[in-house]
Amino acid sequence: MKEKLKKLKDKINSFVENNYSRKVYPAYSKGASTVSDASPRSIEGMIWAVGMLGNHPRFMGNKVIKAIMQGYKVQRYIGGGLFHANKLREPLHKKLELELEGYDNAALAQDIQKVASWYKEAFTRMNEMNAPTLRVTETIKCLDENLNKVIEKIEGKAVKGPTRIRMGRPIRTMTMNMMRIPSAYSPATHEITIASPEIFPLTQKMAQSRGYSWRHEANLIAYLAHMESGDDRLIASAYKYRISLEMFCLKTDVDSKMKFLELLNLPDDRSKMGSDLNGSSVAEQMQNTYTNTKIAILDKINVKPGEQLLAETFMALDKKYSA
């Protein structure tokens, strides 16, 4: 029975991969990206503004506002459905020929220590570079090109994603910051909005916009795109987030995780990004490495089974390429 179910699942994955994820979704992605990039203002932001206006007593019950919001709700369901349908495509680890063997705490802790040493080395090289401040738009362009290269190697063709990354307007940015969301992707409008210029979460959302609906797959694609850059600043960012992602996959209590994190003695990352995103001033310091990792742990005390694939895919990737 299990064998039959496995064969059925493989057939579904193959059908969705070949007929939807490689044909229908890239066409939708390209069209939606064109509309999103052509809009002078954030579509998502304008809908937020209309929604807030609709809550004002003077405009409650306004037929035009109600029609716009109902239309957006319909599009949100359609866009969400188109996006999440990619979860039925062939798993990324199979395409990369990665053997997922699970892990125990000791093996994962050892892997985190290894990545921490890589991070310290990249951080040291990054400081020795004395390179100019990372400009947001230049970084986005670089990562967009790297994502295309990585996806083309895996899938045989690149998928266009939104390249106009937008800063959230004050109220939305404040909401995102309160929810500790540095970046967000909306399948309904095919837009990526950032509340703070965190590099790796932004790349992960860019990977999601290309049809990698599973979080662990989007993170792996983002990680590979950072490695493709050859830039120690982007490589260090990828290592930093890999540590945070693997830390919350440790099967232990939060206090033990925090003690282990302190033992890693990670350097304080104060890399700056420039202020050239859509004309907005976003010259901010990236958050402290320790704080970022701590937030990731505190936000994810209970790890869902699917999220354990985050650690498995990273460890399997290293095992394959170090062999």
Can you describe what's shown?
This protein is mainly α. Helices cover 64% and strands 3% of the residues. The chain has 13 helices and three strands, in the order ααααααβαββαααααα. The chain has helices at residues 2-38, 43-54, 63-84, 92-95, 105-129, 136-155, 170-178, 199-208, 215-229, 232-247, 254-264, 289-299, 309-322; strands at residues 166-167, 183-186, 191-194. A hairpin with a 4-residue loop joins β2 and β3 (191-194). α6 crosses α8 (199-208), α6 (136-155) packs across α9 and α10 (232-247) runs parallel beside α12 (289-299).
Biggest sheet overview: 3 strands, mixed
Count of DSSP-assigned helices: 13
* Backbone shape: globular
SSE topology string: HHHHHHEHEEHHHHHH
Report the strand count. 3
What is the CA-atom radius of gyration, in angstroms?
A: 21 Å
What is the first-to-last residue Cα distance? Answer: 36 Å
Please mark out the parts with pLDDT under 50 across 5 or more consecutive residues, or reply none: 270-291
Strand order, biggest sheet?
A: 1-3-2
Global mean pLDDT: 78
Helix content: 55-70%
Overall domain count: 1
Strand content: under 5%
Structural class by sheet pairing and helices: mainly alpha
Topology:
Layout: H1 2-38, H2 43-54, H3 63-84, H4 92-95, H5 105-129, H6 136-155, E1 166-167, H7 170-178, E2 183-186, E3 191-194, H8 199-208, H9 215-229, H10 232-247, H11 254-264, H12 289-299, H13 309-322
Parallel strand pairs: 1-3
Antiparallel strand pairs: 2-3
Helix pairs in contact: 2-3, 5-10, 6-8, 6-9, 8-9, 9-10, 9-13, 10-12, 11-12
